[in-house]
Amino acid sequence: MTMTLNDKVAVVTGGSRGIGAGIALRLAQDGADVALTYRQDADRAATVVKQIEALGRRAVAIQADGVDPTAVGDAVDRVATELGRLDILVNNAAVFPVGPMDELDMTEVEQTIAVNIRAPYVAVRAALRHLSAGGRIISIGSNVGERAVFPGLTLYAMSKTALVGLTRALARELGPRHITVNLVNPGPTDTDANPADGPNAATIAGFTALGRFALPADIAATVAHLASPEAGYLTGAVVNVDGGFTS
Q1: What pLDDT does 3 receive?
Q2: Partners of 89 in the β-ladder
Q3: Are the beta carbons of 16 and 63 closer than 8 angstroms?
Q4: What predicted TM-score, i.e. pTM, was given to this entire model?
Q5: Which residues have a catalytic role annotated?
């Protein structure tokens, strides 16, 4: 444990599984108290909370569906109230619609925009009530926003590309407040939703320079660095942690 985040408080949206859980655990390993939001799986969220507490850190799980902007904002406020402060916001929660553009119905379009674009915006607005100098805002995008190698990814790619504009413009806006804003674009990552031994995994891995999937810990390591004091001069950046997928 490096403890570079000792006495810091972080919130990770969508932190009950996959990349989000990996990020939550890594931040706790580095010394932060961590809150995580989840949409419906309370048991998985509780498991992550127990893992964080086993590291000697405080943890809380908050149910908040990204389609509900009030729930998102209230969850961020609750973190600051229950854990005493807020230093790090990680916008991770997302939905992953797949299908030809003319076959996705408007319900899917609206859900994607709500969860992948509006929710991060709302979470940032709420976080700014609590973040002080040295605060960190880190969003999780996707390699698909840089390179869509399969058809059917238009809606998802559009939603993740929106985070580039949020990151770069917000970095400029918050620079005078000494709050950094960065974006991490994961490549193929071994999770329940996208397993490294899935039916298309070999083809997907073949698009990377390293020829393999990432682990959630690979993505979490970059997030932890961006959250640390050592990254204090890094803002407005888009960091591709994709094994060379976009090379």
Answers
A1: 80
A2: 11, 137
A3: no
A4: 0.97
A5: 156
